[in-house]
Amino acid sequence: MQHISNMKKKIRNWLIILLMIYIVAGVLLYFFQDKLLFHPEPLPTNENYSFNVPFEERKVYYDSSTLFDIVRFKPSNDSIKKGAVIYFHGNMNNIQYYAPLANNFTKYGYEVWMMDYPGYGRSTGKLTEEMLYIQADELYQMVKATGFSRDSIIIYGKSLGTGIATELASKRNCKRLILESPYYSIPNVAAHYVWMFPVEWISTFKIPTYEYIQKVLAPITIFHGTEDETIPFSNTEKLQSLLKPKDEIIKIDGGEHNGLTDFPLMKEKLDSLLSK
Predict the structure, then answer these.
(1) Cα-Cα-Cα-Cα dihedral of 160, 214, 114, 250, to 10°?
(2) β-strand 55-63 against 92-93: which pairing, if any?
(3) Structural domain boundaries, residue 10
(4) Taking a C-beta distance cutoff of 8 angstroms, is the pair 172, 138 a contact?
(5) Which residues partner with 225 through β-bridges?
(6) Which of 121-125, 198-202, 218-222 is least confident?
(7) Together in a domain, 33 and 107
(8) Which of 87, 136, 232, 237 is the least crowded, having the fewest Cβ atoms under 10 Å away?
(9) Same domain, 20 and 54
(10) How many domains does the chain have?
């Protein structure tokens, strides 16, 4: 009997230890989730950009502590200008990292407008979900004020930027919404990694793409790799039932999270969309 009693005591002690570990890990996850989600690379304010395509930098002061740094990439031949692509990039680095992708659009006569999120590049301010939406809308209004009509504006989101792009397209008309490696919601992606925690409850960033995508009136094209381990393809599968009949999903077999634009299938489809 004494042996059984000791075993029960040991089990109870281990359960208490595991519970404490679980609680501590959950608390750390809650307080450090922004560090896990966002990986900005700031740039010195006096450092000049250098890109292989014509461009101009614009700075928008939202308030005393918030600066939106924007780069406008232009086609080499302005006479063939077709429209503008508002490009929302991923959760790493800054505009310098994503700038080479602008050529995918400028070669067809589209301007590309990229903006760094607060803390990225030369943008400043507090990074919140609301501020991401405010930034996106400010950028859309700026593009329209430059002379582009809503039927010449393509909204493009990559990775983290897909939810931001979808929220914008849900309230502002555009020619097309293009999503590269989208997520169902931030908690849905988090659950893939930390399924043992109530991520829906502890996530401070929600970005519910699934809610916004149902309100998008423009045609939607989604590109997603089947071997994406960062944002699993299952996210796109969950979004599929929420799409309009003429919206399309381009499944890139063997595609991972990055490098999808190197696949012939994505190149061909992008070429088809942009050459119209």
Answers:
(1) 70
(2) unpaired
(3) 1-37
(4) no
(5) 252
(6) 198-202
(7) no
(8) 237
(9) no
(10) 2
